[in-house]
């Protein structure tokens, strides 16, 4: 059964409705927080990538513009998504 705070956050659409897989030998609270933290990292990566695409679209295209900044945002976002995705996969493999 979900706590009231978890239900409110899930209903608000901040955290996806995914239920993290419990890892054997780990307490329920820690396992749940770890799962939601990884989903939060995925969402942050998506936000960073989207912001990089936005900055690329509105950036100054002249020779004197800061052309590498959007790619830093997009790269950081993609790295966050890949890192969180691989950690989710590893933890789901452990939980079996």
Describe the structure.
It is a single chain. 6% of the residues are buried. This protein has three helices and no strands. The protein has helices spanning 4-12, 28-58, 69-95. The mean pLDDT is 75. It is elongated, with a radius of gyration of 17 Å. The chain starts with a helix and ends with a helix. Helices cover 70% and strands 0% of the residues. It has 96 residues and is mainly alpha-helical.
Topology (elements, then pairings):
Elements: H1 4-12, H2 28-58, H3 69-95
Q: What order do the helices and strands follow?
A: HHH
The 3D shape can be described as elongated
Can you give the mean pLDDT? Answer: 75
* Main β-sheet description: none
> What is the helix fraction of residues, given as a range?
55-70%
Low-confidence stretches: none
Which class do the helix and strand fractions yield? mainly alpha
* Spatial gap, N to C terminus: 22 Å
Number of helices: 3
Question: Nearest-angstrom radius of gyration?
Answer: 17 Å
What is the quaternary state of this protein?
single chain
Q: What percentage of amino acids are in beta strands?
A: under 5%
SS elements, strand count:
0
């Amino acid at each position: 059964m979900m706590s009231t705070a978890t239900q409110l956050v899930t209903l608000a659409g901040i955290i996806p409705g995914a239920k993290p897989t419990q890892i054997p030998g780990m307490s329920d609270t820690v396992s749940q927080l770890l799962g939601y933290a990884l989903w939060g990292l995925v969402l942050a990566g998506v936000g960073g990538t989207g912001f990089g695409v936005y900055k690329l679209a509105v950036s100054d295209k002249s020779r004197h513009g800061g052309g590498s900044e959007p790619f830093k945002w997009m790269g950081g976002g993609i790295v966050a998504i890949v890192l969180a995705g691989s950690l989710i996969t590893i933890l789901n493999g452990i939980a079996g």
